[in-house]
Give the backbone structure.
Amino acid sequence: MLQSGQSDFALCGAADAITELILASFYRMGVLSTGPTIQEACRPFDKTRGGFVMGEGAALMVLERRSQAIERGASIYAELAGWSTLCQAHHVTGLDGDVECLVELIRQMLRRAGWDYRGPQYINAHGTGTEQNDRSELQAISMALGDKADQTVISSNKAVMGHLINAAGAAELAITALAMRDGYAPPTMNLESPISELDCLPKYGTQTNIDRSLKLSLAFGGHLVGIALRKTPFEQYSRTAQPLSLQARIRGTENTAPAEQSARRAA
């Protein structure tokens, strides 16, 4: 609608809240974690993963043409570089084990974004902490990116905020845009025994310039969605990076006590 001139801008996002019926449905399905504590229950990409914890929340973003954003004096978080939607049509809830469709989804995004020879610097993964999802997602990323996978960091937000179900994609896309703004790829919390050699940022995020990122969402029914974001080339219109919280977990400070970390960053 934006490209055809039917609309000047759109509010894009989602919200979701937990209901007893939905909670009971996921419980009966066996996808909820039974970890010993709520803080450590969801363990994306970990060998001991056993499911997710439900959460609720919302996120809304403004999508508009770059010319319109500049004209109204907006500060731009990121630009939409490419996207792809596919459906495996494989199973009501499960993913297709050969991951061919998910590989094609990622490759389509890279082609549309013009990143065939560069690849993303950061991927915000679906990362539910379930046995099948995590294995299939990392396998597809590795196959789609090839050698470029070694230069990409990956993380899942669900270990911290839970699975927001219908709102998960929107909230995690917003987090991806903030990661690009602040130059901080957030960690995958509770990740101690990785199932892959890919860099899934176990327990500590990393400070790095992020010009190109991907967001993946894998829904029931085989629905696969991906969005590629890039920094705007017009730096004077981009959002100003915000300082990280003193509690931010930063790679390179793993052996430093939290109080010492805070004092050092404050200094």
User: Anything to note?
Assistant: The radius of gyration is 18 Å. The mean pLDDT is 92.
